[in-house]
Amino acid sequence: MHTTSDWITAPVIADLLHGALDLQDTAHGVLPHRLPARARAQCADGQLAMAEAQPSGVRLVFRTRATAVELDTLPTKRVYAGAPPRPDGVYDLLVDGRLAGQASVTGGNTLTIDMTTGTTEHRPGPAGTLRFTGLPDRVKDVEIWLPHNETTELIALRADAPIEPAPDRGRRVWLHHGSSISQGSDAASPTTTWPALAASLGGVELINLGLSGSALLDPFTARALRDTPADLISLKIGINLVNTDLMRLRAFTPAVHGFLDTIREGHPTTPLLVASPIYCPIHEDTPGPSAPDFTNLNAGQLRFRATGDPAERASGKLTLGVIRDELARIVEQRAAEDPNLHYLDGRDLYGEADSAELPLPDELHPDAATHRRIGERFSKLAFTANGPFTDHSS
């Protein structure tokens, strides 16, 4: 057992945090954000505020010979009225790149969400401590990946030996933006979201701007992508525009062009991959909006349904099929002058045959096995052979 005098407290500073675009000082410690303050100030949407403060892809990275590490955090846990409790968020511990432990923090604040009324209630709760022991007694690189779906304030980091920032491994930085699927909804843990898996297989450093419910071609998100240093950029566009029924085809096309134009202001020649939606039966040919189906909510079987009418496509309503066709056309048009712009059909990551084998449990989000399949396929298509992210320097 370690006594209090054994521990060395290290400040939670930006040099230790990877994958966050901003750090906010709080009454307890620091809160990582995945959108900068200026972007957050330009949107009052509660869904976006919750999503960008959930630290998908954010991890503490340091070098130490410590055999024990502690992290005090204050999580905010979501509770859906009438539904069974959600599991606590998972923290993944990596030692020299290999998974060496997993743990959760109990307690914390609670955010109760009533999906029938759209109202929320926030209740404060106590902080908790995460502890990993039995680490190898040698100098090593340690990563603690924060829960991809649980807001996490960082209070204190302690170890039984000094901690210092890990040296730069010289890896390329991959900046990705997408929906809740990219954020990791229903993945088993933060290192097994499909972008984290693909980044590991591709040997790159991930910055994940997957924003649950909020991949909506917002100009402030485009500016955040523009202003973030990156060697590789990908965009997963489509499903949120359908399930929010946010815009029609007339608005969609110039919005995509404007989004790409903004990114190109900061990354004029960076490999940029535009990916269309994965296969999703309820919205392939039926517009949104999506709506929760509360029939089996008490049994923990929340599902979603499409409430639009396929005939509404004639008036410009978006479906996944419409979006795929238009994204392919836009990328083909622009690629004539932008050879570093590429298109990936999302059905190559998860298509109709995959849906028959591994159906989306709630009709919208992939499960853990499907995240692995998508991550492996993305890595193969993007990072290997003649993929757009192939590293030609080696």
The proportion of strand residues reads: 25-35%
User: Any low-confidence stretches, pLDDT <50, length ≥5?
Assistant: none
Say how many strands there are. Answer: 21
Q: Which quaternary structure do these chains form? A: single chain
Mean model confidence by pLDDT: 94
Helix content: 10-25%
Summing up helix and strand content along with how strands pair, one would put the structural category as alpha+beta
Major beta-sheet overview: 6 strands, mixed
Our measurement of the CA-to-CA distance between the termini, rounded to an integer number of angstroms, reads 46 Å
Shape verdict: globular
**Measured on Cα atoms, how large is the radius of gyration?**
21 Å
**Discrete helix count:** 10
How is the topology of this model organized?
Layout: E1 8-10, E2 17-18, E3 22-25, E4 30-33, H1 37-41, H2 46-52, E5 59-64, E6 69-80, E7 91-95, E8 98-103, E9 109-114, E10 119-123, E11 128-132, E12 140-145, E13 151-159, E14 163-165, E15 173-178, H3 180-183, H4 194-202, E16 205-210, H5 219-227, E17 232-236, H6 239-243, H7 249-266, E18 272-275, E19 290-293, E20 303-306, H8 320-335, E21 341-344, H9 352-357, H10 368-383
Parallel strand pairs: 6-9, 15-16, 15-17, 17-18, 18-21
Antiparallel strand pairs: 1-13, 2-5, 3-4, 5-12, 5-14, 6-11, 6-13, 7-8, 7-12, 9-10, 19-20
Helix pairs in contact: 4-10, 5-7, 7-8
